[in-house]
């Protein structure tokens, strides 16, 4: 054996030092907490560094800009949410009947999307999701529809169910039409049941 560090495998980045990983996690957690507490517009690189207990230079070296930081926070938060869908407790995670999982998925997605509205704008300059996020949610909904023995064009049915969960639609309903969140969730769940029963 050799004492030299091994080269990373294809598609794998270089290994991160444990202190660098701790700093990254602290910065991402602090940034998300500050966005939740004060809104994205009030969060600066300096305030994140102070809340994370690291130097301002550490934050700038790691994320380069406020936009880069917010994009990393959004990616980190999305990855944690996807983990809860894949392996978290039921009904969002495995172990519940597929209809319960699908209904829990929609409610969770609505709540999460609205709570991250400012973060989406700060990270991307728009309210559109990245394709990998859409792909994950679409494949998950398609999987649950197939488990429910739904017939028809499953990819398009999944897209039809996901469209009302997208941020521009939710902003229209919540902030412009002033529809209460429970009504939006209940209407989406009614739509799901109609698709499943049809």
Automatic annotation (TrEMBL):
Q: Which residues form the HTH tetR-type domain?
A: 21-81
Annotated region (Disordered), positions in chain: 1-22
Pfam families membership: TetR_N (PF00440)
Alphabetized SUPFAM superfamilies for the sequence: Homeodomain-like (SSF46689)
Q: Which residues bind DNA?
A: 44-63
- Gene3D superfamilies the UniProt entry points to: Tetracycline Repressor, domain 2
PROSITE patterns given for it? HTH_TETR_2
Q: Which domain of life is it from?
A: Bacteria
UniProt keyword terms in alphabetical order: DNA-binding
Asked if the Swiss-Prot or TrEMBL record annotates the protein with the keyword DNA-binding, the reply is yes
Q: What is this protein called?
A: TetR/AcrR family transcriptional regulator
Q: What organism is the protein native to?
A: Nocardioides dubius
């Amino acid at each position: 054996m050799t004492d030299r560090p091994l080269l990373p495998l294809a598609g794998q980045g270089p290994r991160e030092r444990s202190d660098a990983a701790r700093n990254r996690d602290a910065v991402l957690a602090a940034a998300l907490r500050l966005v939740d507490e004060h809104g994205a517009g009030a969060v600066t690189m300096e305030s994140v560094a102070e809340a994370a207990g690291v130097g301002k230079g550490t934050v700038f070296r790691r994320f380069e800009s406020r936009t880069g930081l917010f994009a990393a926070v959004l990616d980190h938060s999305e990855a944690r949410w996807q983990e809860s869908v894949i392996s978290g407790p039921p009904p969002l995670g495995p172990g519940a009947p597929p209809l319960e999982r699908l209904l829990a998925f929609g409610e969770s997605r609505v709540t999460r999307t609205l709570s991250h509205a400012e973060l989406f704008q700060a990270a991307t300059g728009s309210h559109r999701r990245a394709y990998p996020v859409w792909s994950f949610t679409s494949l998950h909904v398609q999987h649950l529809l197939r488990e429910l023995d739904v017939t028809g064009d499953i990819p398009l049915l999944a897209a039809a169910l996901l469209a009302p969960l997208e941020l521009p639609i939710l902003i229209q309903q919540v902030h412009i039409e002033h529809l209460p969140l429970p009504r939006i969730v209940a209407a989406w769940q009614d739509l799901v049941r109609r698709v499943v029963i049809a």
